[in-house]
Automatic annotation (TrEMBL):
GO molecular function annotations of the record: long-chain fatty acid transporting porin activity
Native organism: Chryseobacterium antibioticum
Superkingdom of source: Bacteria
Topology of this chain in the membrane: Multi-pass membrane protein
Name assigned to this protein: Aromatic hydrocarbon degradation protein
Entry-linked InterPro entries: OMPP1/FadL/TodX
Pfam families: Toluene_X
Any one cellular-component term (Gene Ontology): cell outer membrane
UniProt entry keywords in alphabetical sequence: Cell outer membrane, Membrane, Signal, Transmembrane, Transmembrane beta strand
Cellular location(s): Cell outer membrane
Chief location bin: membrane
């Protein structure tokens, strides 16, 4: 069976997922402070750096939360002045984690997150319909982890990543006057993460972490074609009764390096900063290789469809702060800048990414062992002059987006 590379993810909120299709929504408290990572008050630190579990004050910590992310993307053809807007549903990333310290210098935990994926929906008859009409991507990370305290001021942690994913992608096949749906609900992959967490001074936390790439492999994908006449199916080697073909796929989810620090300026006021580096160069092209359907563009094998992506590695800069109004009420603010992983001449409607400034804020409430956090964010994506000569796709792209979250924590002992 030929290899198929299907990297077709969209973001539900370009503001928070501006860099490719990475979702920066794994902790409500963290989001309110620009999604910074060096916070070890509860189990929400587990996804960001498993080593941070060693510095959670309580022996047992449980957290869970969810987000709503809304965005719209507008593309205007500058030759015709025709404007097209997406009708994306609200994205709902989720997270949950637990951390437990059975003995003094050993902590174990588990994290569930949705770090990649969302939905984008363009009109079915828009000018980019051969690229995408609607695309849904979902990914789920399951991470068992362990952390060891090497000294009172430093710990090391690591986790195994088991990932599950789903893809559902609609696009037009205009050469035959029809449409194509690519679907797989059982994609899976694996990876790992590790990190060091430092507290050299009671006022300073430093987090250094790495998360590996994960190749999501779809082994039982189905490609369903719909044409005005069923007589076309046998000519393309498709099942004459269903119009279906088979494919396998690999979706690359990229690696990430993070350095974060938090400094307590006063007992009530702290400041946090993060630097993220994302390995998007892995996504260099999109290749669809069908079992039988000859709708490709590769000389010698018409079943292979290749489109260059030319992503590049990108960076994110984050700055956040928290102030304790009382022992029970906390105010938080933040801002960050997220680079797009491709230039204007490689803009694609499947992954509409922008250089984006994001402003965040929120409140935290602590009631003995219980905590409630709320957060929100507003993005300022920078408009792009689209000049993708390979696709004949030219114009101007704009976006607007916001998101909000609610998180709960419980530290019983």
């Amino acid at each position: 069976m030929k290899k198929i590379l299907v990297s077709t993810a969209l973001l539900a909120g370009v503001l928070s997922y501006a860099g490719g299709f990475r979702v920066s929504l794994q902790g409500v408290k963290q989001l309110a402070m620009a999604h910074t990572s060096a916070h070890a008050e509860d189990a929400s630190v587990a996804f960001f750096n498993p080593a941070g579990m060693s510095f959670i004050p309580s022996k047992l910590s449980i957290v869970a939360g969810g987000f709503g992310a809304s965005n719209k993307i507008t593309f205007q053809n500058l030759n015709t002045l025709q404007s097209t807007e997406t009708d994306n549903p609200i994205g709902t990333p989720l997270y949950a984690a637990v951390a437990y310290r059975p003995i003094e210098n050993l902590s174990v935990g588990f994290s569930f997150t949705t770090p990649f994926g969302s939905t984008v929906q363009w009109p079915s008859d828009w000018e980019g319909k051969e690229m995408v009409q609607k695309l849904e991507l979902k990914s789920f990370y399951f991470q068992p982890m362990v952390s060891v305290k090497l000294a009172p001021w430093v710990s090391f942690g690591a986790s195994y990543i088991y990932a599950k994913g789903k893809v559902n992608w609609d696009k037009a096949v205009t050469q035959f006057g029809g449409e194509l749906n690519i679907k797989d609900e059982k994609a899976s992959g694996s990876g790992y993460s590790f990190g060091f967490y430092f507290r050299p001074d009671p006022k300073l936390d430093v987090s250094i972490a790495y998360r590996s790439p994960v190749d999501m492999k779809a082994k039982k994908g189905t490609a369903t074609f719909q044409f005005p006449s069923a007589s076309i199916y046998p000519l393309l080697g498709l099942d004459p009764s269903t119009g279906q073909d088979k494919f396998t796929a690999t979706l690359p989810l990229v690696e990430e390096y993070t350095i974060g620090l938090t400094y307590k300026v006063t007992p009530k006021w702290l400041v946090s900063a993060d630097f993220n580096y994302h390995g998007w160069e892995r996504y260099s092209k999109l290749t669809l290789d069908f079992a039988n359907a000859p709708i490709g563009n590769t000389p010698g094998d018409p079943t292979i469809l290749v489109a260059p992506k030319n992503f590049k590695n990108s960076k994110t800069f984050r700055l956040g702060t928290q102030y304790a109004f009382t022992d029970m009420i906390f105010g938080r603010l933040g801002a960050y800048y997220d680079e797009s992983p491709y230039s204007d001449d490689h803009f694609i409607a499947e992954t509409p990414s922008f250089n984006t400034y994001v402003i965040t804020g929120g409140l935290g409430f602590k009631l003995k062992q219980f905590g409630v956090d709320v957060a929100g964010g507003y993005a300022l994506p920078q408009a792009r002059d689209v000049r993708n000569a390979a696709l004949g796709f030219n114009g101007q792209a704009k976006a607007k987006a916001f998101y909000f979250g609610l998180g709960l924590s419980y530290n019983p002992f």
